[in-house]
Amino acid sequence: MTLALPAAPAPAPRRQVFVGTALACVAGTMLLGGMLAIYVLFRERAVSAGERFPGDAVIPEVASNVMLMTIASLCVFAQWAVYAAKRQDRLNVGLALGVVALFGLAFINAQAFVYVQMGLPVMEGTFATFFYAITGLVVALAVVGLVFTAVAAFRFLGGRAGDHEVVVANALYWYFVAVAFAAVWFVIYVTK
Amino acid sequence: MTTIETSPDALGAERTDTTSDVASGSFLAGLAAWATSSDHKRIGRLFIGASLLGLVATAAVGVVLGIERVDGGQLVFDAAAVRLLFQAHVVGLVFGSMLPLGLGLAVAVVPLQLGARSLAFPRLTLAGFYAWLLGLVGVIVALANDGGVGGADSDMVVLFLLGHALMALGLLAVAGALATSVLTTRAPGMTMRRVPFFTWSALVTAIGLLLALPVLVGAIILLVVDLQYSQATFGGSGGVGDWIGWTFAAPTVFLFAIPALGVFAELVPVTFRRAQPGRGFVYAGLALVGVASFAAVTQQAIFNVPWEGSGLNLDGFGTKLADLVPYAIFHLLPLLGILLVLALGAFCALGGKPRITGAFLFSFFGLGMVLVGVAGAALYPIQDLGLQGTVFAEAVVVYVSYGSVLGILGGLLFWAPKLWGGRVAEMAAIPLALVGVLATVLASFPYYIAGFADQPAGSAVFSYSGPESLWNVLVLVGHGLMLITVVGTVALLLASARGGDDREPVGDDPWEAHTIEWSAPSPAPGNNFAEVPSILSAEPMLDLREGITPETDGSSS
Lengths: 192, 557
Description:
The complex is a heterodimer of chains A (about 190) and B (about 550). Chain A has about 190 residues and is mainly alpha-helical.
């Protein structure tokens, strides 16, 4: 005998992209947090041995400060895109996401500038290993953010104006990248 | 015109053509449909099939290792090969079978239990499957070419690490999809307090994986950069194990065993044909295992036994208690969580009308074995017992892994009607469950004893007082029996799936179960439910069968 449950009314709107992005951000936090924890462990060992952990490397603080300001400003524009998307304002969404992408590229460019200015060979030793692994991960996160921004822009501007969830998720992701970089900035660029 | 949207049912119907060309084309189309399917049931079955193959291979490696360790001397392989076999065994146990098997069952079943028509991000989940599979193949290739922990070929060591990273990323994708599904695609009326136990266990596992596996990936990134360039930081290939070994040991493996506990919690009320009393405590028990295991993962602490003097010596009681509390939090709370699930199961059994099935026996024995493994793991960190560096740790992992596998096999037997429309013969399943529990005990418990006798871990060369050959022969027999159990269960599952047209219809609800997946046809169609069901209680099918409505019952919020 087959028992039938009553059919339900149409399910409430789902926020799968937003929830999925939030979970990805949690995983990303653990990823970067784990790497920074190992970095701090090795730095403590070096400091206990009376060494300076960056060794002879000189970290360009101006460029890294500019990176922090860039990523923080980017979040403002990502939120502008959310504000515009909720009002179905395609022009402003396009403009805001364009600026987000521009700032994202500027962030990556600044990181490349830091690499060039430092001139630290990757095989130099322990600090170089950590420095390139951790900052490289942040660059990878920014590249993912750029792709996400492009997808959000294409989806929204391509006619799915009612689907503003992806723009909100995109903003959430950039908030995560900003916080992640702030942690990297403090632990690696500031604390020596 | 054939398109990639061709439904699985239509593909099945096409196979009735008789010409060889058509059959060949149909076969290829069917293969392509399977390989690219976004149907969660198919993705779950891909996971399950691949991880069962991995389990067979792992048990076979266990047998080979057992032969190598029978007399404590070098028999067949040299020391380097034995080291790689040990690594292959533990990787196979954890990443090759236990974890993907549990996640595969969750992918196949959870959307059905949620009343959803699909899994969230099904293509991401399929990509996760292939990433896991590719990573596993990479690890096997690396191990076959001296690339594991301490391997001589640094390129192969890097491949070994990248394979693990790929597996972890794939499993993370699946975990993310599962957690998103539970959080966003529940049927109307299904609050979190009405979520089926197995689905809850899948959520706890998924969140645990999202928190734990990224740390493994981060460590691997650092290790790969170091290995490729300076080799100055982590001790080269020999130091790899110090940074990724925690993934394959207790308490991390407890996180991977939670779906098996969820299967048990799901089957108890069905087996005893009554509603589960104290549902909240079952949820709490499952969550406690997850939270406490994750907390213990972050600590990995070794404890001294602080209780000096005789057992009745209470001098300095406060200090002694303060020493014990952190140990208890990190190592006894997971045990408490499992005991809570077991106790609630026993409470449900009281006054019930039992209908013992092979599926229930598998899940019951699975939980029991996981419990013994977790109890053993609580002893392991106590420094005064001297268990570090012995085979005791291997016994813990085997107990938990094989126990988890037994539980998931129970789940497969239970949900087989929904997954492929067949039902496994009970008369064959029950003896297999008994062989399975015997296999797990034999493959593990002798090493609990040998651990106290100081048989070293990860080595085939040893000598200690006591019947060392006996313990190792018993372990060898245990792995052999597990091989038989898995092969036998797979044969039963295949027989139930390939029953043919004369197969007796299994019915939509052959177990008289409680949750809403049993309101869907058997096997469940591509979109699971023709209409989204409405949920008014935690056991909607039981209520429907007994004519109970939430208004008259008043207890099922």
